[in-house]
């Protein structure tokens, strides 16, 4: 196997110029640094439009696997570094190609780039000077300049020349937290953790809100949600989880006897509580795992009536996704196995036989107005919310809802 000296990380959509670009790059670098903590010898170098991680002996494959998670990075290339002398470059290029698994490339091309203009050979000339000896040394290889199996990049710089060919796709999106903060409604299901990951990938900082109906829902169900938040925290360094006591509200709503409308009523109450928590914590949107048509509460008429309970933008990253696409992502992110554990959710407790797919806003508002103290109950739920800070593989810190949120130093 080829041994590598450095990883080259490329930015994707961050084409915004000026101050924002620098802010985005800084956020991505701090994310990279946090993931490099287990690899103390590795050093980060920032260059315009790129990040380099000099490995200093750390294992390139393990490090790149971890850095693939960094939002805002579209791809990673492992790089060999060699002295900027023709003979060294040619020899290293031959070894580089020969060390590739033999079943892999049958066609190749060399793409040289002379960044250091004092180097005596031009880019085109270098393509030939490096390509020729490779052809001689590897009889099974042919040149294909249009669709080569292997594109050997040779970047000639003053200090050193970079040699690389592999391009490993990475998470993409925007660096963590560079697009503001939103509250994620995190159930124990498959969808909402994926929605949270998608929101984070788009540069949102996320705080999670979970509604529980303890003692009707078990501590196991709560632990499952804490673990799900733990998986999400791997992508963020740490994450805040708000646990909202929902039993009283649910009991009141069930008391209306409007079985078919109860899910609609519950969802609206959840959004009201989430909006209040958003305001307290400086978040500007709510994120849910809704996917159009998936269940009765996610038909267009349901989404319409439920969504009116909040004035905040309601972001639904999965709204147009198919379930199998969501499951695929859940497996990749690492939440799937937790999500399918069979603990009950507060909503499964009150699932009516035929929940409405077409609620009427006026009727819903009338029922809500008929409840003696829904607003008071919502306030109480917000007040009694317990907030935890979750870090990957760490013990819990419990805080009260009023505690200061740690926002600045995420890593
Ligand atoms: P999920 O797989 O995320 O549970 P779902 O397909 O089961 O989604 P619903 O149960 O209808 O869908 O919930 C829709 C969305 O409402 C969820 O994706 C989540 O964002 C939010 N939600 C539902 N139940 C809860 C809960 N107990 N706590 C927090 N959010 C919830
Ligand atoms: Mg659910």
TrEMBL record:
Reaction equations catalysed = [ThiS sulfur-carrier protein]-C-terminal Gly-Gly-AMP + S-sulfanyl-L-cysteinyl-[cysteine desulfurase] + AH2 = [ThiS sulfur-carrier protein]-C-terminal-Gly-aminoethanethioate + L-cysteinyl-[cysteine desulfurase] + A + AMP + 2 H(+); [ThiI sulfur-carrier protein]-S-sulfanyl-L-cysteine + a uridine in tRNA + 2 reduced [2Fe-2S]-[ferredoxin] + ATP + H(+) = [ThiI sulfur-carrier protein]-L-cysteine + a 4-thiouridine in tRNA + 2 oxidized [2Fe-2S]-[ferredoxin] + AMP + diphosphate
Q: Does the keyword Kinase apply?
A: no
SMART domains in the record, alphabetically? Answer: THUMP (SM00981)
**Matching InterPro entries:** Rossmann-like_a/b/a_fold, ThiI_AANH, ThiI_fer, ThiI_N, THUMP_dom, THUMP_ThiI, tRNA_STrfase, tRNA_sulfurtransferase_ThiI
Entry EC number(s): 2.8.1.4
What broad class describes the main subcellular location of this protein? cytoplasm
Instruction: List keywords of the entry alphabetically.
Output: ATP-binding, Cytoplasm, Nucleotide-binding, RNA-binding, Thiamine biosynthesis, Transferase, tRNA-binding
Q: Does the keyword Cytoplasm apply?
A: yes
Q: Where is the THUMP domain?
A: 61-167
Q: Please give the Gene Ontology molecular function terms for this protein.
A: ATP binding; CCA tRNA nucleotidyltransferase activity; tRNA binding; tRNA-uracil-4 sulfurtransferase activity
Entries under Gene3D superfamilies matching the protein: 3.30.2130.30, HUPs
Gene Ontology cellular-component terms for this entry are: cytosol
Q: List, alphabetically, the Pfam families matched.
A: ThiI (PF02568), ThiI_fer (PF22025), THUMP (PF02926)
- Swiss-Prot/TrEMBL GO biological process terms: thiamine biosynthetic process; thiamine diphosphate biosynthetic process; thiazole biosynthetic process; tRNA 4-thiouridine biosynthesis
**Where does this protein have coiled-coil stretches?**
none
Give the binding site residues for ATP. Answer: 185-186, 210-211, 267, 289, 298
Associated pathway: Cofactor biosynthesis; thiamine diphosphate biosynthesis
Where found?
A: Cytoplasm
Q: What domain of life does the native source organism fall in?
A: Bacteria
- What is the documented function of this protein? Catalyzes the ATP-dependent transfer of a sulfur to tRNA to produce 4-thiouridine in position 8 of tRNAs, which functions as a near-UV photosensor. Also catalyzes the transfer of sulfur to the sulfur carrier protein ThiS, forming ThiS-thiocarboxylate. This is a step in the synthesis of thiazole, in the thiamine biosynthesis pathway. The sulfur is donated as persulfide by IscS.
Q: Give the family this protein belongs to, as stated in its UniProt record.
A: Belongs to the ThiI family.
**What name has this protein been given in UniProt?**
Probable tRNA sulfurtransferase
Q: Which organism is it from?
A: Fontibacillus phaseoli
